[in-house]
Specification:
The protein has 372 residues and is of the alpha/beta class. It has a domain at 2-70 and 93-168 and 260-341: 3-Layer(bba) Sandwich (FAD/NAD(P)-binding domain). The chain is 38% helix and 28% strand. The chain has twelve helices and 17 strands. The strands form two sheets. Strands 3, 4, 5, 10, 11, 12, 13, 14 and 15 form a nine-stranded mixed sheet that branches. Strand 11 (188-194) and strand 12 (197-204) form a beta hairpin. The protein binds flavin-adenine dinucleotide.
C-alpha cells in the first residue's frame, strides 16, 4: 500500500501533524523508532501557547487528566543568586514526556493514523513529483509525501547531508526527576543561571520535579564526565543550591543529549518537509520548543493537505511553507539564541535580570517575543 503521508518521528510535531492529516481523510503512516512510554530529555515545561494546540487537537482534557501540574509564575536567578520573578501570560503546564508523547501517539492512532513503534527510518528517497520510498529497519514503505519530525539531530540528517551538521554545537544537557516535601514543589517554573550553564526546575505529575540542565561540553569534562558533578557545579548559584537541597533524585538514570543544535536549518530537504525541531530548534532556555513543535505542525498541515488534495503544486507547497515558517519563527529563534548566549555570561545575565527587575515591560517583551 502507498500512503498519502509518511511521518517520521512520533514526538509532538509528528503526532500532531499525523493526527491532523488523518482527520482530513488522508492515509497516514507514523513511524517511531522507540516504544512508548519512554523518558525523553526535556525540561517538560509546556508553555501556555502549547495549550491552544492541544485544544485544537482535542487532547487538552487528556493532558490535564494525565496529571499535568499548573504553573503561573516564572522565576529567573543569576549566578550570584539574584532573583527576578514574573507572572506568566497564562497558566503553563508540567507533564513528563513519558506520559505526554504516549498520549499524543495513542490519540493519533485513534484518529486513524497507522502508528508503528520500534521502527527506525534509515533512508528516504524520492520527490514530491514522483513519490517517496522510505526505508526502515523493518522494510520499505511508500508515500506521496514525507514529513520529517524526527527531532533536533539524528542519523537521517547525515543521510540527507544537511548543511547544519557542518557546524558543531558545544552543548550537552541532562534531565532527571526529583521528589521533595510539598513546600519544594511550587507552581512556578524556575531557571537558574550559573557561569557554566543553566538549570530549569519545574513541577510535573505525581508531585515530582523535572530538573534539566545544559552546559558547555567543557563543563562536563571539568565535572569528570559526571552529570551529578556538573549539576553540583551549577549549584554555585546559591538560589539553585537552596532549591536542590531538599530534593532526592527518583529517576534511576539521567536522560542525556549532546550536540544541541541551535543553528538555522532548512524547512525542505530533498523534498522532505521538516516540522518541529527538524525544521529549527529554539534555545531550551525559552521553554517553548514543544509549543513551537506543535505550532510548526499546525503550520505544515494545511499546506501538506492542500498538496495531497491537488490544490497546491509541489513548488507552491515548498515556497508557501518556507515563507510561513520563517515569518512565524525566524525572529523568535534568533532572539532565543541571543538569550541563550547571554545566559553563559554571568555579567550579562546579572545585568539582564537587574534590567528586568527595574523595567518589568522588558521581561514581558522577552517572554512574549520568544513565543507565539
Ligand atoms: C535541554 C533541553 C531542555 C528542553 N526543555 C524544554 C521545555 O522545558 N519546554 C519546551 O517546550 N521545550 C523544551 N525543549 C525543547 C523540546 O524538547 C523540543 O523542542 C521538542 O521535543 C520538539 O519536538 P519534536 O516533535 O520536533 O521532536 P522530538 O520531541 O525530539 O521527537 C522526535 C521523535 O522522532 C523519533 N525519531 C528520531 N529519529 C527517528 C528515526 N530515524 N526514525 C523514526 N523515529 C525517529 C524520536 O524517537 C522522537 O520520538 C528542551 C530541549 C532541550 C535540548
Amino acid at each position: 500500500m502507498s500512503y498519502d503521508a509518511i511521518v517520521i518521528g512520533g514526538g509532538l510535531a509528528g503526532c500532531s501533524v499525523a493526527l491532523q492529516l488523518a482527520r482530513s481523510s488522508h492515509t497516514v503512516l507514523l513511524l517511531e523508532k522507540t516504544t512508548y512510554p519512554r523518558h525523553k530529555l526535556c525540561g517538560e515545561f509546556l508553555s501556555p501557547e502549547a495549550q491552544s494546540s492541544f485544544r485544537r487537537l482535542g487532547v487538552l482534557d487528556a493532558v490535564a487528566d494525565a496529571g499535568a501540574a499548573p504553573m503561573t509564575r516564572a522565576r529567573l536567578t543569576g549566578p550570584n543568586g539574584s532573583v527576578a520573578e514574573h507572572s506568566l501570560p497564562d497558566t503553563a503546564l508540567g507533564l513528563s514526556r513519558y506520559r505526554l508523547d504516549e498520549l499524543l501517539f495513542r490519540h493519533a492512532c485513534a484518529a486513524g493514523v497507522e502508528g508503528r513503534e520500534d521502527t527506525r527510518v534509515t533512508q528516504v528517497q524520492g520527490s514530491l513529483k514522483d513519490g517517496f520510498a522510505v526505508q526502515t529497519d523493518a522494510g520499505t514503505v511508500e508515500g506521496r509525501l514525507v514529513l520529517g519530525a524526527y527531532g533536533k539531530r539524528g542519523l537521517l540528517d547525515r543521510k540527507l547531508n544537511r548543511p547544519f551538521l557542518q557546524e558543531s554545537s558545544p552543548y550537552v544537557a541532562f534531565k532527571a526527576h526529583y521528589e521533595g516535601p510539598p513546600s519544594a514543589i511550587p507552581g512556578r517554573i524556575e531557571v537558574h543561571a550559573a557561569p557554566s550553564g543553566y538549570c530549569g526546575v519545574g513541577p510535573v505529575e505525581d508531585n515530582r520535579l523535572c530538573v534539566c540542565w545544559i552546559g558547555h561540553t567543557d563543563a562536563l569534562k571539568d565535572a569528570g564526565g559526571s552529570p551529578d558533578n556538573m549539576l553540583n557545579s551549577l549549584r554555585r548559584n546559591p538560589a539553585l543550591d537552596e532549591r536542590m537541597a531538599p530534593l532526592t533524585r527518583v529517576s534511576p538514570r539521567f536522560e542525556a543529549v549532546s550536540q544541541v543544535p541551535l543553528m538555522a536549518k532548512e524547512q525542505f530537504v530533498n523534498d522532505v518537509c521538516m516540522v518541529g525541531d527538524s525544521a529549527g530548534m529554539i534555545a531550551p532556555l525559552c521553554g517553548d520548543g514543544m509549543a513551537m513543535a506543535l505550532a510548526g505542525a499546525d503550520l505544515a498541515f494545511p499546506y501538506a493537505s492542500d498538496f495531497l488534495n491537488d490544490r497546491r503544486s509541489a513548488e507552491e507547497f515548498r515556497r508557501a511553507y518556507r515563507q510561513a515558517w520563517n515569518d512565524q519563527f525566524r525572529f523568535r529563534l534568533r532572539l532565543g539564541r541571543w538569550v541563550h548566549a547571554a545566559a553563559f555570561r554571568p555579567a550579562a545575565t546579572t545585568s539582564l535580570l537587574s534590567a528586568c527587575r527595574v523595567f518589568p515591560p522588558l521581561a514581558r517583551w522577552l517572554i512574549r517575543s520568544t513565543r507565539g
